[in-house]
Amino acid sequence: MNDIDEKRDAVITKEPIQNYRGKSSITVSINGKDRALPQSYTISALLSELNIDPLKVAVEINKKIALREEFNNISLNHGDRIEIVSFVGGG
Amino acid sequence: MGEIGRHIVGHDTVNDNVDTLKDDKLIISGRAFSSRLMVGTGKFSSPEIMLMAIEASGAQIVTVALRRVEINNPDDNMLRYIDRDKYLLLPNTSGARDAEEAVRLARLSRAAGCEPWVKLEVTPDPYYLLPDPVETLKAARVLVKEGFTVLPYINADPVLAKRLQDIGAATVMPLGAPIGTNRGIKTREQIAIIIEQATVPVVVDAGLGAPSHAAEAMEMGADAVLVNTAIAVSPSPPDMARAFRLSVEAGRTAFLAGLPEQGVKASASSPLTDFLYE
């Protein structure tokens, strides 16, 4: 189980950096973890890369809510702190 | 699993000719619900068991919480499981320690696609999870102004309940006992005053550990109850959910029927058998 998780982590956190080598990349924080992204990456592109259904989450950038309708238009900037949240069980 | 795990769900509620509850609706913020039992979705052992329990509870309002998406497991999401045509999803603000955090969570829930309804919880103390009245009132003011239907979780404080009602809270949700303690209605006297004075629905929330506790709240005249832990941690959540449903219906029916006065001295319920003494 741990092996699989680590592998997934590796795919998610390391591969993009290699892919983006040569282009200028930015670093953002996603749910508390740093991550390299290409410049001018949109929220939509990020969610799609993470396999996250945009209709089932809310996204905050630097504590400001990004409206779902704007996911396609909002580009991420170096140093952005991004929170992606969704619903879990609760009372 | 033996007797205790046997599912008896499926049999319907007692089907009497007299159905007091047929037209009895819980109205929150102009919206009518026929069920007076709200259920939480925390602590279930699997989504499948949770769904069976929700179904068996008859609930129409289901609470959820907001958390960071697990980047490695983005599909673990309540929106995948709960049919929103059938249930009103009521996001809570659990985890919020002050008004600002609660407002932030409520806004995020709305942005995630929920209707602007929120169970407002501000619990700075992780040990008893008792709600902070000052921060709760502050957050409620902001959220009401932003158009939210606000259902605040409060200690059983009648003055606070009135203050919240005055600023536009849709309900008040006084606790019976601290969250997850299963101890029943330890705040009975205060809840009775809240019920007497409230012009918005009173939903007894937290601490209800047995169907009898829920029945007690409903007999007292509470408009609804919210149950999570007692159902979720039962060896058979669907059966426990059904038991709560029946107890809420029983308590509500008894309240509507009118409970008798309590007395001190005995009062015979059989006719006196005079001839024995002649």
Strand coverage percent of chain A: 25-35%
By oligomeric state, this entry counts as heterodimer
Binned, the helix content of chain A reads 25-40%
Shape designation of chain A: globular
Summarize the helix and strand pattern of chain A as letters.
HEEHEEE
Order of SSEs of chain B: EEEHEHEHEHEHEHEHEHH
Number of helices of chain B: 9
Instruction: Classify the beta-strand content of chain B into a percent band.
Output: 5-15%
Overall strand count of chain B: 10
Amount of helix of chain B: 25-40%
List the helices and strands and how they pair.
The complex is a heterodimer of chains A (91) and B (278).
Chain A: H1 2-19, E1 25-30, E2 33-38, H2 43-49, E3 58-61, E4 64-66, E5 81-89
Parallel strand pairs in A: 1-5
Antiparallel strand pairs in A: 1-2, 3-4, 3-5
Chain B: E1 26-28, E2 31-33, E3 37-40, H1 47-57, E4 61-68, H2 78-81, E5 88-91, H3 99-111, E6 117-120, H4 133-145, E7 149-154, H5 158-166, E8 173-174, H6 188-197, E9 203-205, H7 211-220, E10 224-227, H8 229-232, H9 237-257
Parallel strand pairs in B: 3-4, 3-10, 4-5, 6-7, 7-8, 9-10
Antiparallel strand pairs in B: 1-2
Helix pairs in contact in B: 1-9, 3-4, 5-6, 7-9
Question: Your description of this structure?
Answer:
- The complex is a heterodimer of chains A (91) and B (278).
- A 5-stranded mixed sheet of chain A has the order 2-1-5-3-4.
- Chain A is α+β, with helices and mostly antiparallel strands and 91 residues long.
- Chain A has helices spanning 2-19, 43-49, and strands at 25-30, 33-38, 58-61, 64-66, 81-89.
- In chain A, strand 3 (58-61) and strand 4 (64-66) form a beta hairpin.
- Chain A is globular.
- Chain A has 2 helices and 5 strands, in the order H-E-E-H-E-E-E.
- With 278 residues, chain B is α/β, with parallel strands linked by helices.
- Helices cover 34% and strands 15% of the residues of chain B.
- Chain B has helices spanning 47-57, 78-81, 99-111, 133-145, 158-166, 188-197, 211-220, 229-232, 237-257; strands spanning 26-28, 31-33, 37-40, 61-68, 88-91, 117-120, 149-154, 173-174, 203-205, 224-227.
- In chain B, the strands form 3 sheets. Chain B has a 5-stranded parallel sheet with strand order 5-4-3-10-9. A 3-stranded parallel sheet of chain B has the order 6-7-8. A two-stranded antiparallel sheet of chain B has the order 1-2.
- In chain B, strand 6 (117-120), helix 4 (133-145) and strand 7 (149-154) form a beta-alpha-beta unit.
- The N and C termini of chain B lie far apart (61 Å).
- Chains A and B meet through helix 1, strand 3 and strand 5 of A and strand 4, helix 2 and helix 3 of B.
